[in-house]
Amino acid sequence: QFLQTNGSGVTSWAAAGGGGTWTILDTEEISSAVGSVTMTGFTSCYDQFAMGISNLGSVADGGEISLRVGCGSSCTGCNYQMVIKYWNAAAACLCGFQRAVTRDEILLNVNTGSASGESLGGMVYFHRAPDDCESNLTITGQTSTLSNTGDHYMNVIGGIWKSSASYDRAIVTGISNNLDHGRITLWGIKHA
After folding, report:
1. Across-strand partners of 74?
2. Spatial CB neighbours of 74, under 8 Å, sequence gap ≥ 6
3. Nearest to 120 by CA among 111, 131, 130, 129
4. HEC profile for the chain?
5. Of 78, 74, 73, 26, nearest to 53 (Cα)?
6. Considering just the CA atoms, what is the radius of gyration of the chain in Å?
7. What CA–CA distance (Å, rounded) separates 120 from 88?
8. pLDDT in tens, 68-98
9. Cα dist from 189 to 25, 47, 104, 116, 149, whole Å
10. How far is it, in rounded angstroms, from Cα 139 to Cα 106?
11. Edge-to-edge strand list for the sheet holding 120-126
């Protein structure tokens, strides 16, 4: 809202116009060991989606954390193409790799530690409405990780789910280790 005047000194509150909105669709708090976390709420009411990850950690050192999308009780695998570039601050190295089209998931990081403070944080964006069956789903984001060796990794992620099928959920998984703490929030974004 904003404060407006009628020109004669009389003020009133009015609804702000223009712009889009972000709406919280799902929040999951992880406080004990789980293999994966499912985020729901993807609907055609929104143009795209954002997922915020805070203090996400695994039960053991060296774990990778991944992302997949699904519909209903099924999870879509073997149809992702991705690139992850990461900056290793200790080694002053910009590294990266590409995963083949047959990959089962999109990686969100390359190495997560399990001690206090060694966790994953960042934002991931889904750039297609769930029922837009005309194009592939593009997923982008940035995450940051403190590894079990104390090295900081800054990860830049780009991926495509090579399918025009609908989706209604995202599944965040600890690949080699269970996840044991953190919070994940999903927002729906309307452009107007």
Report:
1. 71
2. none
3. 111
4. CEEEECCCCCEEEECCCCCCEEEEEEEEEECCCECEEEEECCCCCCCEEEEEEEEEEECCCCECEEEEEEECCEECCCCEEEEEEEEECCCCEEEEEEEEEEECCEECCCCECCCCCCCEEEEEEECCCCCCCCCCEEEEEEEEEECCCCCEEEEEEEEEECCCCCCCEEEEEECCCCEEEEEEEEEEEECC
5. 26
6. 19
7. 14
8. 888 876 665 557 777 777 777 777 777 766 5
9. 10, 6, 27, 33, 37
10. 9
11. 21-30, 179-190, 48-58, 120-126, 137-146, 152-161, 80-88, 93-103
pTM above 0.70, yes or no: yes
| Structure tokens, 87 | 């900056």
Beta bridge pairs of residue 34:
179
Report whether 125 contacts 102 (CB < 8 A): no
CA quadruple 147, 173, 127, 53: dihedral, nearest 10: -50
pLDDT in tens, 97-120: 655 545 677 888 877 777 777 888
Is-contact 68 77, C-beta < 8 A? yes
34 pLDDT higher than 80: yes
